[in-house]
Design brief:
- The chain is α/β, with parallel strands linked by helices.
- It has 3 domains: about 1-15 and about 150-235, no CATH class; about 20-145, no CATH class; about 250-320, Orthogonal Bundle (Arc Repressor Mutant, subunit A), CATH 1.10.10.
- The chain is about 45% helix and about 15% strand.
- The chain has helices spanning about 10, 20-30, 40-50, 55-60, 85-95, 100-110, 120-140, 145-165, 170-175, 250-255, 255-265, 270-280, 285-295, 315-320, and strands spanning about 1-5, 15, 180, 185-190, 195-200, 205-210, 230, 270, 300-305, 305-310.
- It has a 4-stranded mixed beta sheet. Strands 2-6-7 form a 3-stranded parallel beta sheet.
- β3 (about 180) and β4 form a beta hairpin.
- α12 crosses α13 (about 285-295).
- The model has no long low-confidence stretch (mean pLDDT about 85).
């Protein structure tokens, strides 16, 4: 059981984030235990083929402790913004003191002997792990990251809407059945671990991080940093579905090509900056189109942390699929 004692300021400072490095590290759980992650089988099959003769395969799989399924803590740093950049996260773990990285590896094995691939001098071990994780991100996660991020952002916007409508208690109790909230205490019941930890958050705030590969809520133990609760995102069962592309010609005749393109792209919540980046145009140009679509009831917007996310409305869905 992990227990956080939260005050009013902590609840007011509650923020959402998604982390590409968290997904990269926790995806190793699915590779080492496919039977427990059947929703990810299409991705697991492809990734095992990609790693079949990869020089880092043994090292990557050894990062997950057999049976316990633990990971070294330094591979899952706390978020610093709602939409964290993978380059920043990789740079952060490369700055981990070598002795701390080695200690995290040993702690993850909980007294079990380390496999030979992890038995190395601390600095060399840290550097080898960081290099392997960066290469694994590029190989297995980055090509799929747009659809993964879209699902994570959709979860964030849903929780932000719940927070606005029903308050913090509804958000916390709705994260996962393993979460309890009462009398200012947030409890994470982690039944597979013999763990008893309680922390007074004392104004440090709270990060809530949706994730695709966790089977239940997880919370890294850090008495100094802001508490972080990673929880299973909604809609994981749809992640690897193939979706037919909508027909754009009639919609473009009605709205104009730029707005039609934007509307079809907003099947999951996306920020103005991300939409502009994909199209290599200025955010102000995207904002003008979004304002028009919003004024006509075709897109909705909600804030997730400091980022405003846009998604299309039910009316827009019906328009796209010719169901009006």
């Amino acid at each position: 059981m992990i227990t956080y004692r939260l005050g009013v300021d902590d609840l007011a400072g509650m923020r959402f984030a998604c982390s590409p490095l968290l997904e990269t590290a926790t995806s190793l759980w699915a590779l080492t235990d496919p039977a427990a992650h059947v929703l990810h089988l299409p991705w697991i099959r492809r990734t095992h083929l990609l790693l079949e003769n990869h020089p880092d395969r043994e090292l990557l799989l050894a990062l997950v402790t057999p049976e316990l399924q633990w990971l070294p803590d330094f591979l899952t740093p706390r978020p610093s913004s709602p939409l964290t950049d993978i380059a920043d996260e990789l740079a952060q773990i490369r700055r981990t003191p070598p002795r701390q990285a080695a200690a995290d590896v040993i702690r993850a094995y909980a007294g079990r002997p380390l496999p030979a691939v992890l038995d190395d001098q601390p600095r060399r071990l840290r550097d080898r792990i960081c290099t392997a994780i960066a290469a694994y991100w590029e190989l297995a996660i980055e090509p799929q990251w747009p659809r993964m991020r879209s699902l994570l952002e959709a979860d964030m916007i849903h929780r932000a809407q719940v927070l606005a409508r029903e308050g913090a208690a509804a958000v916390l109790t709705g994260l996962d059945p393993s979460v309890e909230w009462s009398n200012g205490r947030l409890r994470l019941r982690i039944s597979s671990y013999q763990l008893s930890y309680e922390s007074d958050v004392s104004g440090r705030g709270l990060w809530l991080v949706p994730t695709l590969f966790a089977k239940h809520t997880i919370g890294p133990l850090d008495p100094d940093g802001p508490p972080t609760v990673a929880y299973p995102a909604r809609g994981i069962g749809t992640l690897w579905e193939s979706r037919p592309a909508p027909t754009l010609s009639a919609l473009a005749d009605l709205l104009g090509s730029p707005r039609a393109d934007l509307l079809t792209a907003l099947d999951t919540p996306t920020s103005t900056i991300e939409l502009a980046r994909r199209r290599q145009v200025s955010p102000s140009a995207i904002s003008q189109h979004l304002a028009t679509l919003h004024a006509n009831g075709l897109v909705a917007r909600a804030r997730a942390g400091r980022v405003v996310l846009y998604t299309r409305t039910e009316l827009a869905d019906r328009l796209i699929h010719n169901r009006l």
